[in-house]
Amino acid sequence: AIYRIMKTLIIGKNSRLVNQLGINKKKNIKLISHSDIQNELNFGVVYKNIFLFSFSYKMQENISMIEKIKLFSVESQIYIISSTSVFSHRISPFYKYPRIKSKMESCAISHGLHILRIGYVVNDERPLNGGEYLITHPDDICNFIDSPLKVNKSNTVDLFKYISLPMNSFYKIFYSFYLSALFYLGEYAFVLRPVDLILKVAGVKWYGY
User: Fold this and answer.
1) Could you report the per-residue pLDDT of 5-44, keeping only the tens digit for each?
2) Distance CA 95, CA 209 (A)
C-alpha cells in the first residue's frame, strides 16, 4: 500500500455547503465524493482528521459511508449535521430529510464518530427576516476544520449561536401563529408543508423542513 500523510479529508465534494465554504481552495485538505472513499482505503492513505458532509436519502448508503470511514486510522472522524434537522425530526418524523439525518447522527455516534452540529450558515445576519435563528458563520466551520481537537472532549459539539431579530407587526403575528401550529400539530406538522414552501419562496429562513 502507498501511504501519504495529509492533514484532513473532506467527504462531500458535491455538497452545497462545502462549495459555499470554499474548502477546495484550502491547503492540506483533500476533497472527495462519497464514491471515492473505497479508493482512498485501497491506497492506504493516512489522514489526521476526516469530516463527513455527504448525505444520501438511502439509509444503507449512509451506513456504508460511516462503516468505511471507521476503517481509517485517524485522530478524529467527524460527522456534520444541521441542528435544524434534528429539531424538525423531534417535532415530526414525517419530514424525510431530517428523519434520515437524525438516524445518521445516532448511527455515527454508535460507530464512535464525533458530531458537529451547525446552524443556518450565513455570512451576515442583517439581511435575515425577523425571527429566531440558530446561525453559524462560515469562518467558524473553516476554523473548526483547521483545528478540530476540541471535539475530542465530547461526542457532540454545537457550533452555532442563537439570535432573535426584531419583526414588524405582520411577521410577529404570523411567526407566533406558525410556531403555535408547529408544536400543536406535533408529528403531523408536515401539513404545514405548503406554508413552508411559500415562506421559502418569500426568502424567510425560519420555516421547518
Assistant:
1) 668 999 999 898 998 898 877 778 899 999 999 988 888 7
2) 6
59: which DSSP letter?
H
The CA R_g of the chain, rounded to the nearest whole Å, is: 19
Residue 197 CA: distances (Å) to CA of 5, 41, 132, 144, 208: 46, 41, 19, 33, 10
Write down the pTM of the prediction.
0.80
- In whole angstroms, what is the distance from residue 73 CA to residue 47 CA? 7
Residue 55 CA to residue 67 CA, distance in Å, equals 14
> How many C-beta atoms surround the C-beta of residue 191 within 10 A?
11
Mark out the alpha helices in the chain (DSSP H runs).
16-21, 37-42, 59-69, 83-91, 96-110, 138-146, 169-185, 193-201
Residue in 50, 100, 97 with CA at minimum distance from that of residue 70? 50
Contacts of range 142-148, beta carbons closer than 8 Å, 24 or more positions apart: 142/21, 142/22, 142/23, 142/26, 144/116, 145/8, 145/10, 145/23, 145/26, 145/29, 145/49, 145/51, 148/49, 148/51, 148/76, 148/78, 148/116
